[in-house]
């Protein structure tokens, strides 16, 4: 089966899940993901990967890149997916309608995520990328009526779309460099120096997508806000899979970019800052989910930091950490979800003593939170690799970085110890709900078992993970993993003891002050800056919108005049024109009449005077036409002027015209605008005089009017024959105007009739 | 079949329809007039469909057989034929929707008259290659828009006055520009004008063309000439908003597209930079205006402006792909924006208002409406794989590859703010609880008519989003035709 079809089936399955809930759909769902899981660990191979063309003219197709990296992510998505779906079912047993929506959206997300990690075409990848954002949005605002979840959902969507749009430009730049959307072809392309230069820009743009999606500084606030979502969502999207999308992209592009200096600098810097801030913040949270959220941010920072390196050790550490983190963090989130469901709280203080009541819960909590802290039997990988890396490169910066990262690991260890401490603390008061933690623990139990298994077979992890390492770093050969080395144990122990020391320090600090370190209200900054932009927009809009018609006309006419003036100046059209003056005296008289009329129109503030000056202006124009020999035009002009004045006065006869006054203000501005516009148009008119126009059109009409159209009056022939379509359309305009007038009259009469009825 | 027959029918049918509708205006409310109207719309869809069948064969018509450039020439190329098909399809759906629009009320027949006048104006404006003829069709569109705007039971004289005043100014500017062009080239035929631009008159032609485009720009609502649009569109019946937003500004954009590819100065400096800058400003100012509105239809009206900016940007980038981008954007926008305005109209019918401060939790009240609104809103915001994404992607690609980096940045910012507005509609209208909202979200069902009209508009939008391949070949054909300027000019002048 083609894998595109399989993805399509996944989307259809999502629609079916939204539609109805039945055992068959559940079976279908589990089978769907089980097949993928088996495929990703190479048990079965049912899929073909023939690309399917989507948009041929843009070379956009559904093509797939299957290597260790995408297989690893597929395994994570499908494996944890199955467990999460199981958990979801138990989690929302009470409310089947909600389960339908939750399951459908989770399925939509999971398939999109699957597409993301499999796609080879950048645009297809982007499409899946945005689909994960949008399904994450819908999942965070799952509790649709609440303000907090809506705000958090909006923040997450806005931030990830912001990043992804910038990243899209990066993809377009890659496309213009390599003339292909296919990642595999881009990788195998040999580069020229110029392309190397442009790669920096690509990297910057793509990094924007990565740091927003994978919740790096300064954008990680969306992830901590996303804790509004139900527990299965947090466990799946916001710890194990979606937030890893950015990490995936980094790993995918590692071969292309890792030779750049920028790659190392940017990733190390971003990763370190994120690690430090998140680990510090995580220790000071009282909300269990917030602790976990910040520790997720820390882990993501650590992964970015690790990907900055390009030796096999770090990449191997990255791969193992990725898997391990996904498993234990999903488990921890599920535990938090179970507790929230049972005790309706996520506050650590109120959860005190939970671990003493239920041995199964205690066991799972120790395993998952122990793994998070890096207790010796479970975990020793990342920290060890960091020291290896420091050994390899000996400059001081690396040592500083190493110290900083070890310190933040200690802080995270302290945070998880703190959680465990509360779980096993003697409760101050009896906990209200005495009911047992039941079935909900099944899914975290599976994950805890997985953690133990991984710990037991940790020697072989290097082999299991080697295809992934090879995908990121094609040159690597052997496994460098040696969990039994003394340095590893030493460092793990050091972290554990450091964590305990940090916890004690924290308790000491808490005795004296309530300050929360590491918590930067980035979400408030974000919302404030968005408001600022909108305020700016509001001010700009207020300048122009909601004004009077006169003001709008002022803006329109003056801006057109200015724009025209610009084209005139750029075209060097300004010349000194000699005015031909063979009819100087009559012209002068008419001109002075026109100018006087215009002035009185501008200066008078009585409506009646305005009307009279306007009609005088028209009369002056018709005089002008007479002097030019266009008597027919003059007559038409005269008729229009006279008629319009008469009609206007008839219409307005009930209004006391003396009382109607036009606005006095801004008359100077009006004058200036009118003068400017008049001058511009005059300039253009005068410029036409210097051009010898080809008189072909006129001559044709003159020659053929009688000959072909059988009419002596050329104007008539033009109107009814040569350009009859114009006349036709003008007739329609008149009909349309009549229809409009009749509509107005009808409406006026009806309202008058109604008011008449109301009065009687 | 000869293409002449459907083309003639295109001009005759609206006139017959107007006459039929005028018979009904004397009566109060004729029950069957709506069905006659639907029948006529279907007929017009069939005619445009027939015309589109031969979309590859360009038909040049010289009115009264006067050879170009002496008479008036109409050009029925793929662009004209395809857009007429799209427009008459949308017209059918909107007319169907308007049967249940109680804000139209007694003015129903007048709305239909207005619609047919508008169709006539659109057909003329799309087909003509004579600038004075274009001006006359623009006048037809102007007056018909006035009738359509007025068909509302509420009194909206003030916004209409606003609309009329500014648009008549635009018409006057058009007239001045046509006069200047005629004075400098001695021609009115667009192709002939293109042929007679030479060293002497090129500078003057540039100014005259700029004036012509700015005059069109008033009608096409570009920055800083768009002020009438946010005043007029929200303050009328939703059917009227639907008709105007889908047709009027879009036709102007298509006319500009044709002019850009016929007249070389429009693709050269300084006009190209000028209009790209104006396009960017249009995008930004439109979206800024929308971000501060509270009524759904006001928000959407400002977004019309912002998206006209995108279209204008693509029009002024000289490449084949840019034409595809502009046309795709336009078609996507017509369908998606109409869907959203229709959603707003339905909300207004059920709740009495579409003010986001006064309605809330509509998702519970009507899930289907919520689903359609969400899909359409996300499409407008450019979320893949919906149609808005391809529109945005194409515009980004063409502006990036032609080194218009500022335009790329503007497009991204505007796209984000569009997302903000769309989420605002979704969040406050459909999701979040609001104690101050005085409209309780009592469940309501969509009527069959509303459902069918919504689906009729959203299905094409979804289809061109999921499978752009259904529409791309036609758009590429249009782009290929338009870019082959010499061929087009020879066709017009030789026909």
Description:
The complex is a heterodimer of chains A (760) and B (495). Chain A has a two-stranded antiparallel ribbon with strand order 1-2. Chain A folds into 3 domains: 1-243, no CATH class; 258-515, no CATH class; 547-691, no CATH class. In chain A, helix 2 packs antiparallel against helix 3 (68-91), helix 16 packs antiparallel against helix 18 (396-423) and helix 16 crosses helix 19. Chain A is mostly helical. In chain A, strand 1 and strand 2 form a beta hairpin. Chain A is built from 30 helices and 2 strands. Chain B contains 20 helices and 2 strands. Chain B has a two-stranded antiparallel ribbon with strand order 1-2. The model of chain B has no long low-confidence stretch (mean pLDDT 91). Chains A and B meet through strand 1, helix 5, helix 6, helix 22 and helix 23 of A and helix 1, helix 4, helix 5, helix 6 and helix 8 of B.
Topology:
The complex is a heterodimer of chains A (760) and B (495).
Chain A: H1 3-19, H2 23-40, E1 52-55, E2 60-62, H3 68-91, H4 96-118, H5 122-140, H6 147-178, H7 183-188, H8 193-213, H9 221-225, H10 231-240, H11 244-257, H12 261-283, H13 288-308, H14 312-343, H15 354-357, H16 359-373, H17 381-392, H18 396-423, H19 442-456, H20 458-472, H21 486-512, H22 522-544, H23 549-570, H24 584-603, H25 607-627, H26 631-651, H27 667-689, H28 696-707, H29 714-722, H30 724-759
Chain B: H1 4-24, H2 33-53, E1 59-62, E2 73-76, H3 78-98, H4 108-127, H5 131-150, H6 157-185, H7 190-195, H8 202-219, H9 228-232, H10 238-262, H11 271-291, H12 296-315, H13 320-351, H14 362-365, H15 367-381, H16 387-401, H17 405-431, H18 448-466, H19 472-483, H20 485-494
Antiparallel strand pairs in B: 1-2
Helix pairs in contact in B: 1-2, 1-4, 2-3, 3-4, 3-10, 3-18, 4-5, 4-10, 5-6, 5-10, 6-8, 8-10, 10-12, 10-13, 11-12, 11-17, 12-13, 12-16, 12-17, 13-15, 13-16, 13-18, 13-19, 15-17, 15-18, 16-17, 16-18
